[in-house]
Amino acid sequence: MTATVTSTSAQPALAGITFPDGFIWGAATASYQIEGAAREDGRGPSIWDTFTRTPGKVYAGHTGDVACDHYHRYVEDVAMMADLGLASYRYSVAWPRIQPDGTGPVNARGLDFYDRLTDALLGKGIDPVVTLYHWDLPQTLEDRGGWAVRETAEAFAEYARIVHGRLGDRVKTWTTLNEPWCSAYLGYASGLHAPGKKDPAATFAAVHHLLLGHGLAARSLRDAGAQSISITLNPNAVSPVDPDSWADREAARVIDGLSNRVFLDPLLRGRYPADMLEHMARFTDLAYIQDGDLKTINAPLDMLGINFYQPTYVYAKPGATGSPDQPGSEGVGYRAPDGPVTDMNWLVEPSSLTRLLKRIHDDYPGTALLITENGAAYPEGPSADGAVHDTRRVEYLDGHLRACHDALAAGVDLRGYFVWSLMDNFEWAEGYAKRFGIVHVDYSTQQRTLKDSAKWYRDVIRRNGIADPGESEG
């Protein structure tokens, strides 16, 4: 949090590196972003179905109705994963496919799809990692208060039990939530994501009920015999612009608390940070935090998933209104990227990933980590030769894998790496305007084309590392 500010872009490979035996190589996707089939086989509406139909919320009015049509093309997609040599595939289950209203009757046809997908993966020697919630809350639950109310956390535990009941004999690794920061802050504070609310009190209630939902689901999964349980966060590699400035360090403390410690401390220490309780109390009376909740949230974790894309640099800026997705961040300024950026205008700085992993390792010892998402959006499409030459993505991935290797060398217990994303997809509020995939998708034909980054990643997997520059890769 107080590291010296340096902006180091991803560099071409300078030397070969090898990862530990058993290091997990995977790729990740999310249900609403790739599946399509939004109204098929009994699937109910999610908050994203509603949000995408709200004028002005999503780029060009795009929806996930078809997306990558993975629901119908999963066999082809699994074969593609096998060709890449993936050891593991992280997919998410769409809650509205399983319980269209979020509670009540189970939709067997929805479970059937994930049954088929799981078997297809195992048939190709690919280990499924299941994420139970990647933002597509059933609309009926949102109508009853969404994550701002306790009922949703309780319903989530029941949903987890149902999915495990069908897939638990074959799925070893279960992730409860993906990026609860986004669900709470983008969904209920800035309104940039579904359900599009702008209510700080609801934001912090959502933080707590998402964490409680994780804890209740983890208990349900553990009781049912789940082998490995995790949650995925998107911790912020936040640093003060001037580490020697008390005011800048104080700005970083606030953003670190809102982004990181409000999630990490309850999960791994069984308590909220005192400064964050005081911060949250500015907006709500915290009556929703009940006796026993923090013990439930502090359920033992087998792994902590880390999603990482860019660092954040902050400074004291008296009079600043703060960020709409960080309630209470008045007086904090954000430094604009001062180096190479992705198509999302996100700073490329691999060294900040090493710094973040070491910080979590040091502050929360004994926690096994897994990179569950890392990648970059770049717009390159097929060239005249039919190939997709996404050199900048290769450089980005190269730099961040080297950052992971540096963390391992520093003693961090890092178990694996999942690239985001397997293929171009519906990128939430950005619609189809941003492409994160290592596989190009032509949305008009649904044709998949391996980008150069996919071929490079296939070679990384085969080698269990990155080749020396003089070696051929292919």
From TrEMBL:
Pfam families: Glyco_hydro_1. PROSITE patterns: GLYCOSYL_HYDROL_F1_1, GLYCOSYL_HYDROL_F1_2. One of its GO terms (cellular component) is cytosol. The active site is at E179 (proton donor), E373 (nucleophile). It comes from the Bacteria. GO terms for molecular function: beta-glucosidase activity. Keywords: Carbohydrate metabolism, Cellulose degradation, Glycosidase, Hydrolase, Polysaccharide degradation. It catalyses: Hydrolysis of terminal, non-reducing beta-D-glucosyl residues with release of beta-D-glucose. Belongs to the glycosyl hydrolase 1 family. NCBIfam families: BGL. This is Beta-glucosidase. It comes from Paractinoplanes rishiriensis.
